[in-house]
């Protein structure tokens, strides 16, 4: 796919993990966009989204690194960029508050008796600009980084509990407290708890690679 503003029915994983994202419903497919230099997937804020086959674990530890731009500017709740979830009561997600682009992490695993944790970044917010964001979770806590700077380290209720083999969702919000919202996704990498987690050095290298790819200065 090379033409701007084309619907995306399949986004293939560039790694050997085979975590392809797809959308069978034509009207709910996000758009492939390009300005001739950069490339991204763009959701309409209504019903667009992509989903993988059930293959990732909801549980700690977990890492997500993504390049994003939140387009929606109205709303008092979280727009999810990416989540691993079974349903509204069992999942973990990364997103941002619609009206002021404040990174948020949400986890809840009711079937394992784990109450919700809704963690928000501190003082540095995205400002609806193109950003590189990283989420790392661990038993009892989570950290977030924005453009290479740590903006949150807080505790969460999710410890060692987990649920296996759930889908990765982009723009398809299942977990509670999220709202539809338009955003651009330039790239996404995910490590669930069944895989070795990247070190800080590796995270920094990946953030720089993502920043160079999308024109962000760290």
What does this structure look like?
Helices cover about 5% and strands about 45% of the residues. The chain has 1 helix and 18 strands. It has one helix at about 200-215; strands at about 5, 10, 20, 30-35, 40, 50, 55-60, 60-70, 80-85, 90-95, 105-110, 115-120, 130-140, 140-145, 150-155, 160-165, 170, 185-190. An 8-stranded antiparallel sheet has the order 1-4-5-18-8-13-14-15, with helices on one face. β13 (about 130-140) and β14 form a beta hairpin. The two termini are about 30 Å apart. The model has no long low-confidence stretch (mean pLDDT about 95).
List keywords for this structure.
218 residues, mainly beta, 8-stranded antiparallel beta sheet, 6-stranded antiparallel beta sheet, 1 helix
> What fraction strand?
over 45%
Uncertain stretches of 5 or more adjacent residues: none
Mean pLDDT level: 95
Following the backbone from N to C, one meets helices and strands in this order, namely: EEEEEEEEEEEEEEEEEEH
Number of strands: 18
**Rounded to an integer, what's the Rg over CA atoms?**
16 Å
């Amino acid at each position: 796919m090379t033409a701007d503003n084309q619907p995306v029915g399949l986004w293939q994983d560039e790694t050997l993990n085979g975590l392809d994202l797809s959308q069978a419903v034509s009207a709910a497919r996000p758009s492939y966009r390009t300005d001739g230099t950069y490339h991204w997937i763009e959701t309409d804020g209504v019903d667009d989204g992509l989903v993988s086959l059930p293959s990732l674990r909801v549980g700690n530890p977990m890492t997500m690194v993504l390049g994003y731009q939140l387009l929606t500017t109205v709303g008092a709740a979280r727009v999810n960029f990416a989540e691993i979830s079974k349903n509204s009561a069992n999942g973990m997600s990364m997103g941002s508050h619609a009206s002021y682009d404040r990174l948020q992490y949400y986890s809840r695993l009711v079937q394992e008796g784990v109450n919700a944790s809704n963690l928000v970044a501190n003082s540095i917010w995205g400002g609806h600009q193109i950003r590189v964001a990283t989420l790392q979770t661990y038993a009892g806590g989570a950290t977030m980084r924005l453009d290479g700077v740590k903006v949150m380290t807080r505790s969460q209720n999710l410890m060692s509990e987990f649920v296996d083999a759930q889908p990765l969702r982009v723009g398809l919000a299942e977990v509670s407290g999220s709202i539809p919202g338009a955003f651009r996704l330039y790239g996404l990498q995910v490590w669930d708890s069944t895989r070795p987690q990247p070190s800080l050095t590796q995270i920094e290298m990946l953030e720089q690679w993502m920043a160079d790819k999308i024109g962000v200065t760290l």
